[in-house]
Amino acid sequence: MSRATGATGATGATGTTAVTAVRFEHRRVGDGLGIGVPTPRLSWITETEAPGWWQVGYEIEVVDARGEPVAAPGRVESDESVLVPWPAEPLESRQRRRVRVRVWGSDGGASAWSEPADVEAGLLDPADWSARFIAPDDAEPGRGDRDEPPTAPPSLLRRAFDVPQPVERGRLYVTALGVYEVEINGTRVGDHVLAPGWTSYDHRLRVETLDVTGLLRPGANAVGAWLAEGWYAGKLGWDGGRRIYGHRLALLAQLELALADGTTQTVATGADGHWRAHASPIVASGIYAGEAYDARREQPGWSSAGFDDRDWLPTTVVERDLGTLVARAGPPVRRTETLRPVAATTSPSGRAILDFGQNLVGRVRVSVEGEAGSTLTIRHAEVLEGGELCTAPLRGAAATDRYTLGGDGVETWEPRFTFHGFRYAEIEAQGSRREAPGPDAITAVVCHSDMERTGWFSCSDERITKLHANVVWGMRGNFLDVPTDCPQRDERLGWTGDINVFAPTASFLYDCAGVLASWLADLAAEQGADGGVPLVVPNALEATFPAAVWGDAAVIVPWVLYQRFGDVGILREQWASMRAWVDHVVGLAGDNRLWDEGFQFADWLDPSAPEDGPQEARTDPHLVATAALCHSLDVLAAAADVVHAGRDGRPGDAANYRSIAAEVRAAFAREYVAPSGLLVSDSQTAYALALRYALLAEADQRARAGRRLAKLVRHAGYRIATGFVGTPIICDALCDAGEAASAYELLVQEECPSWLYPVLHGATTVWERWDGIKPDGSLNGVRMNSFNHYALGAVADWLHRTVGGLAPAAPGYRRIRIAPVPGGGLSWASSRHRTPYGLAESSWRIDGGTIALDALVPPNTTAEVVLPGVASDRDPIRVGSGRHAWRVPDPTAGHGRPAPRGGFSLSAQHPRW
Ligand code: BGC
Question: Would you say residue 282 has pLDDT above 90?
Fold first, then answer.
């Protein structure tokens, strides 16, 4: 039996206590102005060296723009520091408040006031808008085919205006039908990419609030906007796709100036006839297609005062319900990193190909010099085949950018309104250039929702650490405003099933609460009257049907956000949607309580499924569907407890859903479970589901199922035999069954299919298919073959919780579970996560027959610790905040697998890819 020697609060000294990171809702300072709720909840982090620190009270000071207090609620006796209620009068539109927080701790001490944090409301009421959407008066609706009018071409809009006084405060409220960028007096406003992002536009269209004070001056001014089709007017989906929202691009902009003499001035689209429009130098632009830009069509000074726009077209008002306008809940999309090519090669057919060394999402920025009219064409791909750019996996996405030179010195260009998933770029130059753009003149620009990084994992096995890095890149590439399946082909859709399984991993790696809360609002808005959930959100597909696990995202994603970010509000917001989906499926299951009819994706992409039938998995699809229903019922009942706690609500909900869950369990047992615990689908996914979702009533059955699962895993040679549903939970199920060693065998497997197979074959992101590239180096020729799909990377959640050993034990990590399970020949591992309360860490290292475990527990939280080698159902050690260290004998000593072979070198991996 291991004996722990522990030291808690090892740093000992009580240092100063400081309140930091004051934030509102799920927006960081830096995420911009214009919050969309009148009573934004506040969160903060306390930093203290005092061990076992607990907050006993807080005070929030709220002052107005003149520094006058507007609320003095005094000290509140509370230990809450995450998403606490707004303490002052609700904000009105445009109102700005400055907030400071101080806290009192269990050590009797008080903190100083935090640094002030500003919050400013956007336009909260449609009546705040004097602006109307405007469009260039050229694209006549209905021209051409009546049903399929042509999409309006990219255009420029502008308006000149005089400002009589110095500007004390300037705000631009802006959005578009399409995608836009705004300039004032020749300077770009903000740094957002592809604004307003993609939401279910018919229900929710995002507005930005931008501080433009510094861009305005007394005298002549001008504002201009670029407009292009984006998701609004572009065709989305495969086989040519379809245009979902409209064909007419339009801008809504309201510039509000507070002038030095106390007066205000508003410059708004649609309010007068002074807005003019012109064709853009962007000649074509599409999310899938890429962008074509002709620098010869530039009009220098077009967004500045004094520009002659007499030959520009008039604009016309486009009617649209301003009640659909909403503020952003999370961060905007931004450029977050640039990468230089790591290699420049000439392909066998003589083409110039650059390798950025990383499969990424964004676009290429190029600097070039040459004669007017010469062109540069940039094609993108994730992989090469035979040394040539391999665009087959992009299917219908042309992913081609073309720049036509203006001929005026060095020209630097990056497309504005498209993005590509690529590692390689092929550069083709035509016409006369003074100099070919070499690799030094070319940069890849990474773009995604600019979420705060919050999670890290590493371990002694470089291969696994690289797998984790690939998962992180997969998340970056697939969180470009909408959580998508893939970022490169003619899809890039918010597939519900993919985020259902990936949400726990996502919530560890980045603060994605705002992005996913927004997405869930779209999901609820697009849910059918019968509770049905679209397969993709926003719903870009014509056909939709109820699909288990995919539709269950309506229930599971809000629950994950509640667990990981401690936000009860998300559960309340989504409650009706969660319930509607479950009620819908309960209805489909009918009296026999089995969801046993209809098409299911189920254990999608089980490696044994035929290449043209990814749904034909070895696990019965309706077993999966009924198991998923049971899980959602459990979650819904637990959510009902939270949502209705202390409220009148419908207290019967929890009991009701628990009793339906019991009936579904009984039906599942009748239909699929032998008395011994064996299942009719004798597959890994079936056993994993039964174990994880508590579908086996008897301890004996669970033990039998656990043994059977381990045997199947062993018989499969520790190669993956699960699809989208089984893969994310297989390692947890094995650990539950006391078979952690088998989970590690799966993890460290190098042969295909396995997590490490792609890593060892040069992957820099997680692939959609285990054999996207075959062992002989050839490309898998299937049509559906993405090299950047996050779903199968959901194993990272197990890495964080079990290998590193850091998991939430109560919503928002208020209580943390530190319970690493060493294995797989690893000599150390570490999980770090910036919880809503501050940084938490679990790190262990095997050292001369003992394991040293180090933990960091943030202030205002506690942790339960299960030391390696100690049965997890034993009473855990309970500790408060601070650094802690323990040493225990190494339980794997003598019978662990040998440490992985050294010499894994990423650069040596299959250079031809
Ligand atoms: C997507 C998936 C998605 C699936 C559903 C695919 O085309 O890329 O990730 O969940 O379809 O069948």
Answer: yes
